[in-house]
Write a structure and sequence with these properties.
Elements (H helix, E strand, L loop, with lengths): L6 H4 L4 H6 L13 E3 L15 H18 L6 H10 L23 H15 L7 H5 L9 H11 L1 H14 L5 E5 L5 E7 L4 E2 L8 E3 L8 H8 L1 H11 L3 H4 L3 H10 L1 H12 L17 H12 L12 H21 L3 H4 L8 H18 L3 E8 L2 E9 L2 E9 L4 H5 L2 H5 L6 E8 L3 H16 L6 E6 L14
Parallel strand pairs: 8-9, 9-10
Antiparallel strand pairs: 1-5, 2-3, 3-4, 6-7, 7-8
Helix pairs in contact: 3-4, 3-5, 4-5, 9-10, 10-13, 14-17, 15-17
């Protein structure tokens, strides 16, 4: 089956009809770096979600009540509060940060304990507002905005199930299948036969953009991109807060130690604009990459030969052709302009998705299996093209990232008995010295008879110097 498909394409309904029901017509298999913001529930006018905000607030209020009853960490009330925070993965949503699964992120017991402890610190200032739970993601490592999203979907699972089931009925979606859920009821949900997976519909109005960062520096991201909050914090500490408190962890702790700081942060959060993501203009190109590829596919159609794949070398040749086509579009047909809109480079995931669209076309035409984000060992590879036991793996790396560090992982590839060849695509961005050092290391490894990948260098700069395809065997 095609990897690059939206919900409407797979279920043979019009995009307009689906979106008329307020459903986000997301691309299947890929997380869109969006999250369900519980703050937006109050603006949602859909019957299945009429009481959703109250249901969520009730659960959070119960957590707050238990934490207020708790006299010390790990007493009965504290443990009960932590239990209410624990969630399993949300299923079949494809939002959040891109990974190799359609599930969301769980909140495991240790993380729930840490969240409860931060919550206990905050409510110690006699703050009972449920919004404090949403603010914890600013202070707790591993509790990103997409976990708030998963917590919300997990709590309101029945609401999402009823919404999905009704839309399926109203749009006459026939590819559905019954499933039993923890609420004891059965639901008829959209079903992807080839992957044996269900689809859960998400209202567009609930979705906001995720920050690029997904590490412990989330509070830095919020402060950096919210001038009002930054100015407030600067006034609170009487000088630039970055200089006043040297480390990220210390800055977080500093805010938690003062009641007025926590209340000020909560006030800012509650009074912020309630705006869902702009899907019409897609300003951050979360889904626009697919329409971009369709435009280029129409303008520059691929001519395929009827090639029977008999050997690994045949598969390698197909992969070379898709890379060369990607290079041609990038360097000569202005695909690079889509990478650099507004003079800022898209991240590695955007480049991977554009390449994936090309790989998908080639693999369908040549009867190859395509596995994006295939996990092997302790870390993932970007793409795996295969036919039976013949496999080719493709890695994409931007030169702005640490490609020298990556080279240390090359020997790990050798240990994969089922991966016959590795391609490394390097997308350049004015890092000539780094690229030269990369090539020197490759040459050194060759001299030592070490394993080295076949690689291509593709120049995506808007005004590049003449670039030729470079193939190292």
């Amino acid at each position: 089956m095609k990897w690059i498909q939206t919900i409407s394409e797979y279920f043979w309904i019009s995009k307009e009809d689906l979106e008329s029901k307020w459903v986000y017509d997301r691309i299947l298999w890929f997380d869109s770096r969006l999250f369900v913001d519980p703050f937006l529930l109050k603006e949602l006018v859909i019957n299945e979600f009429n009481w959703a905000e109250e249901i969520l607030r009730k659960r959070i209020k119960n957590i707050i009540k238990l934490l207020r009853l708790s006299e010390e960490e790990n007493d009965i009330a504290f443990r009960k509060a932590a239990e209410l925070i624990i969630t399993k993965e949300t299923k079949w949503v494809w939002i959040g940060y891109w990974n190799d699964t359609d599930d969301g992120n769980s909140i495991w017991p240790v993380l729930a304990h840490n969240i409860a402890w931060i919550g206990k610190k905050i409510i110690g200032y006699w703050i009972d507002d449920p919004e404090i739970f949403e603010l914890i993601w600013l202070f707790q490592e591993w509790f990103w905005a997409d976990r708030i999203s998963d917590f919300t979907i997990w709590t309101l699972e029945t609401n999402f199930l009823n919404f999905t089931e009704r839309v399926c009925y109203e749009l006459w979606i026939t590819n559905i299948k019954s499933i039993d859920f923890k609420d004891g009821n059965s639901y008829m949900l959209p079903y992807i036969t080839e992957q044996e997976k269900y689809v859960l519909f998400i209202p567009q109005k609930l979705l906001r953009n995720l920050p690029i960062s997904q590490d412990a520096e989330n509070i830095e991201h919020v402060v950096e991109f919210n001038k009002e909050l930054r100015d407030r914090l600067n006034k609170l500490v009487w000088k630039d807060w970055r200089e006043y408190i040297q480390t990220i962890g210390a800055r977080k702790e500093h805010i938690l130690t003062e009641e007025k700081y926590v209340k000020d942060l909560l006030s800012f959060y509650k009074n912020r604009p309630s705006i869902s993501y702009d899907f019409i203009n897609d300003p951050l190109w979360r889904d626009l990459w697919l329409s971009i590829w369709k435009q280029f596919a129409e303008r520059f159609p691929i001519q395929f030969e009827n090639t029977e794949l008999k050997s690994l070398e045949d598969i390698k040749n197909i992969v070379r052709k898709m890379i060369i086509h990607f290079q041609k579009l990038t360097e000569h047909n202005q695909l690079n302009k889509t990478f650099t809109k507004w003079n800022w480079a898209y991240d590695e995931k955007y480049v991977q998705r554009i390449f994936l669209a090309i790989a998908d076309t080639f693999c369908i035409a040549n009867n190859l299996d395509l596995s994006p984000e295939s996990k092997k060992s302790n870390w993932p590879v970007d793409f795996k093209m295969s036919q039976w036991n013949k496999k080719v793996v493709v890695e994409t790396k931007l030169s702005k990232n640490d490609i020298i560090k990556w080279i240390a992982q090359i020997e790990e590839y050798e240990k994969w008995e089922d991966a016959y060849w590795i391609y490394l695509i390097i997308i350049t961005w004015d890092h000539q010295t780094k690229l030269e050092r990369f090539e020197e290391i490759i040459d050194e490894l060759k001299e030592k008879w070490k394993y080295t990948p076949e690689y291509f260098i593709i120049d995506w700069r808007l005004n590049p110097t003449p670039s030729n395809l470079k193939l190292v065997l």
